[in-house]
Design goal:
The protein is an alpha+beta fold. The chain contains six helices and 16 strands. It has a five-stranded antiparallel sheet, with no helix packed on it. It has a four-stranded mixed sheet with strand order 3-8-7-5, with no helix packed on it. Strand 12 and strand 13 form a beta hairpin.
Length: 351
């Protein structure tokens, strides 16, 4: 604020700060934050997260060059006799590891972001971290920021990574506990599926119970394996050490599926997507050779006696193609995809 134009200033003493790329990237992180949310760097936790942003950006970049001791922020300027540097791979937990130093307290936030980085990768995590800063405000807290990050995943990725991101923030003390029985699933008769919450979270002292529980390998597990031939809803009930009860429900649909005996024919393969029922079959045809996409194709379906039960023209796209038709009953069927100079045949067993 004492300079007529915005600029980055690096310190001296010990190792000159400008010799360390982490320092330059960290300080530029302050510029990014100010550009995205001007004049909002007020409040202890807001200031801590501003320091954490710079630390995160420095480590996110540096780790792509060398994974050794990647959590050491300012690995040249610090971590030496002059000063200890900072750590973006700490196990600090909110709020008990907040201290009088917003630099040190920021390690809670930077370490959380790097946990997410390890799962989602640099490009996506960097994009989400930068995007969320446009919503930063004065006196923002770390739990506020955690909710912002989850909202950004909803907006950018349709919430694809919600469960994992939530698990990171929950283990850090940044979001409250909630029960999660998992997404509704469809399986084929006789198959097994894991339901519940797939990521490791700290639930010491919690009581877990699933109902019904007869088809589960461990009804007291957060993510049991289910083997059942009956469609059902499964209710997860969790009681925390204070006696508060949380619950959530997952629906498991057990379907009669089509078995695919022949998986690859000349660049075409049929994919079983568990979208089958007695009235409407939805197969997905994967096309890996673009030569199939040059001309119209004929899709024909025959029963075991050779009778034609479905016939249509089809223009294949490179990648996934949905095939919709009806199979009248259980049994063996042949599907052909035919062009002028080639034909692919698949045998299906509807059971």
């Amino acid at each position: 604020s004492n300079f007529p134009t915005p600029r980055l200033v690096f310190g001296e003493g010990g190792v000159d700060d400008g010799e360390d790329a982490d320092v330059i990237i960290h300080e530029y992180g302050h510029a990014i934050s100010f550009s995205a949310a001007p004049s909002t760097n007020d409040g202890f936790e807001r200031q801590a997260m501003d320091e954490a942003l710079g630390d995160y950006l420095a480590v996110s970049y540096g780790r792509t060059l060398n994974d050794h001791n990647w959590g050491n922020v300012f690995s040249w300027d610090g971590h030496n006799p002059f000063w200890a540097g900072r750590n973006a791979a700490s196990d600090k937990h909110y709020p008990e590891n907040l201290s009088s130093s917003f630099h040190s307290s920021g390690e809670i936030w930077s370490s959380s972001l790097m946990e997410i980085w390890e799962e989602l990768g640099r490009t996506l995590t960097d994009q989400m971290v930068l995007e969320m800063h446009y919503n930063f405000a004065q006196n923002l807290t770390m739990p506020n920021a955690a909710q912002l990050f989850l909202t950004v995943d909803e907006l950018m990725n349709d919430g694809e990574h919600q469960d994992f991101i939530w698990s990171v923030f929950y283990n850090r003390g940044l979001v409250p506990f909630e029960a999660n029985a998992g997404d509704d699933v469809e399986i084929c008769t006789g198959e097994s599926v894991q339901i519940g919450f797939p990521y490791e979270i700290d639930i010491a002292g919690f009581d877990i119970f699933w109902q019904p529980n007869l088809a589960l390998d461990d009804p007291q597990s957060l993510s049991p394996t289910l083997t059942s031939n009956i469609s059902n809803d499964y209710v997860l009930t969790i009681t925390d050490p204070d006696g508060t009860v949380f619950s959530d429900t997952v629906s498991v649909s057990v379907l009669e599926c089509v078995g695919i005996d022949e998986f690859e024919t000349g660049g075409l393969s049929l994919l079983n997507q568990y979208a089958f029922n007695t009235n409407n079959e939805s197969l997905f045809l994967n096309c890996t050779k673009r030569s199939w996409t040059d001309n119209n194709s004929r899709l024909a379906v025959f029963d075991i006696n050779g009778s034609l039960i479905h016939d249509q023209q089809l223009l294949l796209q490179h990648g996934s193609n949905r095939l919709d038709f009806q199979l009248p009953e259980k049994g063996i069927y042949l599907i052909t995809i035919e062009q002028q100079d080639r034909k692919a045949t698949f045998k299906l067993n509807r059971f």
